[in-house]
Amino acid sequence: MKEKIYFYYTNDLHSNFNQWPRTAGYLKDMKSSRQTRGDAHFLVDIGDHMDRVHPISEASMGKANVELLNEVGYDAVTLGNNEGITLSHDDLYHLYDEADFQVVCANLKHKEEHPPDWLHDTQVLRTESGVRIGLIGLTAPFNAFYQLLGWHLTSPFEELEKQLDSLKQKTDIIILLSHLGLSEDEAIARKFPDIDVIIGGHTHHLLRTGEYVNNSLLTAAGKHCMYVGEVILTYDHDKRELTHKEAYTTDVSSYSENEDTSILLDELAAKAGNVLEEEVVYLEEGFETDWFHDVPMMQDLTETVRKWTDADASLLNAGLLLDGLPKGMVTYGDIHRICPHPINPVVVHLRGDELIEVIRASLQKDFMEIQLKGFGFRGKVIGRMLFSGLSISTTIRANGREAVTGVMFQDGSAVEKEKTYCIATADTFTFGRLLPEIAKSEMKQYFLPEFLRDLLLDTLKNKTPQA
Fold it and tell me: 10 phi and psi, to 5 degrees?
């Protein structure tokens, strides 16, 4: 007898709740259809369902996302970096306390060896016919962040070496829930042929019909849940083996919204509104923002970051502030709205010549106009770089481009090319190739769990003495 087993999956929603009622509607319809037909079926999420850019996730510290997953009826999830490193230790520790599903993440460990009850390395799902499906979860190893939050991440490859043998002995099929990214998934598939399917995420890749690497079928459904993934496994009970694997993705961006999910989202939005209405500061004067010019509030924030981190100098991009604020009472929701990014302060070591190159590159028009997506940035463009602790001289060349003619510290001392300095900035620039000198710095000190918006609030409070 041959049996088909269906897995539906989502990845990297990033709290895109405008789309979620459509995604939920499709998933509920598929679950209902499979139940009617008596088909074995499961529903899993591959992480980054939460993103604190959205007020609902911000106000609930991700617990609203868990409630939404419960409402649809998920069977298992793994963690993404947005669940893992944008919450404080205690908020992550209790994130899944009310989950009706299994949480599997084999490489996430508690530093004090007191893991939460919900955290499992692996999980075994069973069909009614007795087929045993082993799940193992892995998340992106941003250990520099996790360590500061009281967690530790083991190597994904070492964890697979440790877990797969025992999992193979007690299961018929092995599926990896991977929030590692496509290149890592491909490397794992080449090294571990016992993994039958790798359902991926993190790098927002879309594999419409999957792809084979070695023995493993790899699949992923892009980002923001505009697509839902489906994996169909054919198990031969007579041969006691998996004989066929298929993967598909379905565009659900125009699917009918599920009414119950929409109602729940409205309720969660109302609760979030109540939380975010907390009044935090009164502004005697309002301020505006401008992504391509120096503005006082952005300059004040840059100085706050320098002093708060005790750095020699600091630099922040004006695109971090999405809007200004009028005179009057400011709520936490206002702060979140104008600075929604899950971005932390960081101090990096740069030689003087590297610092000068960072300044030169950051003031180029092409750099300022980059429409950045990712690395924690949730704005429109990078914008102009502002500096604290430094005095920058520039000139406008005949071609209209700004050129740096001098860099000194504000006390008048010169920047020595071979001397190493502590420079504070947004952790965005430690990733990718935006500013290579910062990204390749061998010393990076991240500050967690504070976001830049927390320092923005401190800046506003310091500008407006409270009674």
Answer: -130, 155
What are residue 446's DSSP bridge partners?
346
Tens-place pLDDT, residues 249-301:
999 999 999 999 999 999 999 999 999 999 999 999 999 999 999 899 999 99
Confidence of residue 4 (pLDDT cuts 50, 70, 90): very high
CA distance 78 to 83: 9
C-alpha 182/C-alpha 198 separation (Å) is: 10
Shared domain for 24 and 172, answered yes or no, is yes
Could you count the other beta carbons within 10 Å of the beta carbon of residue 372? 18
Give the model confidence (pLDDT) of 291-331 as tens digits: 999 899 999 999 999 999 999 999 999 999 999 999 999 99
Q: How many angstroms separate the CA atoms of 166 and 164, rounded?
A: 6
184 phi, psi to nearest 5 deg: -65, -40
Q: Are 95 and 61 in contact (CB under 8 A)?
A: yes
312, 389 contact by CB (below 8 A): yes
Task: Give the Cβ contact number of residue 411 at 10 Å.
Answer: 7
What is the number of domains present in the chain?
Answer: 2
Last residue of a domain, one of 215, 241, 272: 272
Residues 263 and 366 in one domain: no
**In a 10 Å sphere around its CB, with 0-12 CB exposed, 13-18 middle and 19+ buried, how is residue 262 labelled?**
middle
C-alpha distances in angstroms, 95 versus 118, 162, 232, 360? 9, 27, 31, 43
Extract the tokens encoding 173. Answer: 């099929």
If asked whether residues 31 and 57 sit together in one domain, one would say: yes
One-letter amino acid for residue 244 of the chain: H
Residue 361 in 3-state DSSP? helix
User: Do 257 and 287 belong together in one domain?
Assistant: no
Same domain, 255 and 307: no
Q: What is the DSSP string of 258-269?
A: PHHHHHHHHHHH
Calpha distance 72→195 (Å, rounded):
27
CATH code (residue 29): 3.60.21.10
Dist. CA 13–CA 253, nearest whole Å = 12
pLDDT confidence of residue 403: 82
> What are the respective helix, strand and coil percentages of the chain, to the nearest 5?
30, 30, 35
Structure tokens at 138: 């892995």
Q: Look-up: residue for tokens 């008596």?
A: 38
Same domain, 205 and 326: no
For the stretch 347-358, pLDDT in tens is: 999 999 999 999
What backbone phi and psi angles, to 5 degrees, belong to 241?
A: -155, 160
CB 386 within 8 A of CB 300: no
Residue 387 lies in domain: 278-463
Terminal Cα distance for the chain, rounded:
77
Residue 391 and residue 409 in contact, taking contact as beta carbons nearer than 8 Å: yes
Which run of H or of E encompasses 403? Answer: strand 402-409
